[in-house]
Amino acid sequence: MSVKTKAVISIIVNLAMAAVTTGVIVSYFFTKNFLIRSNQEIFYYFTTDSNVLVSLAGIVVSVFDVQILRGKRTEIPKPVILLKFAGVVAVMVTLITCLVYLAPRYGFGFIFGSTFFHMHLGAPVMAFVSLCFFESGGRLGFWEAQTAHIPCLVYAVVYFVMVMVVGEQNGGWRDLYHFNDNNAWYLAALLITAEEVAILLVTRLVYNLGKPKKLKK
Fold first, then answer.
1. What is residue 172's three-state secondary structure?
2. DSSP letter string over 57-107?
3. 191-210: per-residue pLDDT in tens?
4. 55, 18 Cβ separation under 8 angstroms
5. CA–CA dist 51, 155 (Å, integer)
6. Average of per-residue pLDDT across 3-31
7. Angle 98-100-101 (CA atoms, 0-180°, nearest 5)?
């Protein structure tokens, strides 16, 4: 498949993902359930934040895909690929967490039904496939790929402070994900960290497949 064909597919997937994500988030302002109780809680969820991140990254990628189509460049700049990579890792954390934790807890029909289908499954799969198979960029080194930990780490710190330190009674957040049920927040933190690290390594491995290593001078 040519670089330009990949660029066309990348643009279609990324812009479609961004458009649907925008529509879903707007719909949340008119939706209330036991997960989303108020408008302010919409952006407390990692699901929302990770999807916003990967959609914005996809839009940036599309800008450079257009340049590839116009013959102005042959690949997407490394910083842009790293941004998209971080977004993909984040939404894949959302997907796997839904599969192994949220869906068994609340029901697969609810977690993957209606607009949640896109946020919990559709967008993560679209983002992963577009990055790994249709976005032309250089290989990701082990250490530079570690920058993808940043979004998850930032959210983890904010979640811990707002839930565990400030607390709902003092204007903080309720424990949206019930990570502190039975005072087991440390176990949840360990499992989520292991999950995120595994996702990052696997995503980097798949992304790098078929991309030639640059010869050292």
1. coil
2. HHHHHHHHHHHHHTTS-SS--HHHHHHHHHHHHHHHHHHHHIIIIIHHHH-
3. 999 999 999 999 999 999 97
4. yes
5. 13
6. 94
7. 65
